[in-house]
Amino acid sequence: MSNATDPQAAGAPRDARPIKLACRNVWKLFGANAASFIRERAGKASLTDIAAAGLVGAVRAVDLEIRQGEIFIIMGLSGSGKSTLVRCMSRLVEPSHGKVEFEGKDLLKISDAALIELRRHRMGMVFQNFALLPHLNVLDNIAFPLSIQGQDRATREGRAREVIELVGLRGREHFYPRELSGGQQQRVGIARSLATKPEIWFLDEPFSALDPLIRREMQDELMRLQTMLHKT
Fold first, then answer.
1. Domains in the chain with CATH codes
2. Could you tell me the end-to-end alpha-carbon distance of the chain, in angstroms, rounded to an integer?
3. What pTM value is reported for the model?
4. What pLDDT score does 13 carry?
């Protein structure tokens, strides 16, 4: 995954919304001494240099800005580094070089405690494989991140029921993941990611495991939710 196109350079009108998240020359290299390799080259390296060092360049020199309320799509072929870049933005994967800025603050320089707090309260993520907890029912799966926040049972179950209604799973609160279809499982994943009322909502190919008809239905559902919630 290499540098994104600058919309301003293409003549697009300037967006007045504040920048919520930005990548500044972000690199992620895999292999021994990857961070020192790119640091010694001042954040610049060719594919030839990377290969000669025995490294793999998953994310190379990415610059992008995501504005508040914007739907920002990262596209590329399989294996091009899309998921790695998304994970770099939340530091689930640690970048080898560069800056990841949340509201102007470099996430690579904040403490572990501050990063955990940011993820718990201001970020949400939906994964490709749903990642539901098989021993918890729908209600408890959705309420799980709220329990991590330390909210009491009544509060977290009340919020869980709100998002269950939002994603159309009313009546399935006590079903377990094995009792749900793929589309229903993904709705649980979406509801869980929204339970904390995140400001940034990461979706890593959340519908790729679904059949085409269900995938289209979930894409429409996502856009319906976005018109209501205005997430970034």
1. 19-110 (3.40.50.300), 126-229 (3.40.50.300)
2. 21
3. 0.82
4. 65
